[in-house]
Amino acid sequence: xxxxxxxxxxxxxxxxxxxxxxxxxxxxxxxxxxxxxxxxxxxxxxxxxxxxxxxxxxxxxxxxxxxxxxxxxxxxxxxxxxxxxxxxxxxxxxxxxxxxxxxxxxxxxxxxxxxxxxxxxxxxxxxxxxxxxxxxxxxxxxxxxxxxxxxxxxxxxxxxxxxxxxxxxxxxxxxxxxxxxxxxxxxxxxxxxxxxxxxxxxxxxxxxxxxxxxxxxxxxxxxxxxxxxxxxxxxxxxxxxxxxxxxxxxxxxxxxxxxxxxxxxxxxxxxxxxxxxxxx
Length: 280
What we know:
alpha/beta; Rossmann fold; five-stranded parallel beta sheet; 12 strands; globular
């Protein structure tokens, strides 16, 4: 059992550590960064901090230089000891990864978590990463460029009725994006409406609710498995399937990663939701 004096020393030590972890990184120090999300890695490379990234997460595949870095995290786990041995100045991830990072925090590694659920989070994340990497100016410039491109794409969206869009991320069970999700934000920017009545950002959806919703367009990717079951219930009961309004994006990352390539996904989405306007 710890004595009162030992507990006091431990408390003071933890307090000092908390202050140290919250403090900004030293300016012009070229901090070493571990990125626990592919989208955050893309952000870091896009603002010129790629050389500072020393490790990444599973499924990191862009840019090619990032794919060559050691992977220290999967969807469900982070290799805390391996991260610690890399001597990072900071580890960046998303809020939902917090339960995986207790060991890193106990080792005294600085961890910074960001939100990635909405369109606005893209730019907040760039601001945070710019500050952490000493690339604030580059991050600000990238954010301005991305916003300008988005504004131009929005102006290309035809006026009129907004098609109702159902996003298929998985088919067994049906997994989709709700109105709180980043994907719902992109759908709105593209002049559509999310057809899934779902409170969560992402979640399971019943076949009965999908048939009742009868979306105008179905959006999916090659990995979802949808194209192989379109002739089966509940998919063959959907008007969008019968009218061949099923849009399959070639590169899912362009649509699903809230990173610096999102405008390419938005441009694709606009073309798929408004095909007749694109032909004019």
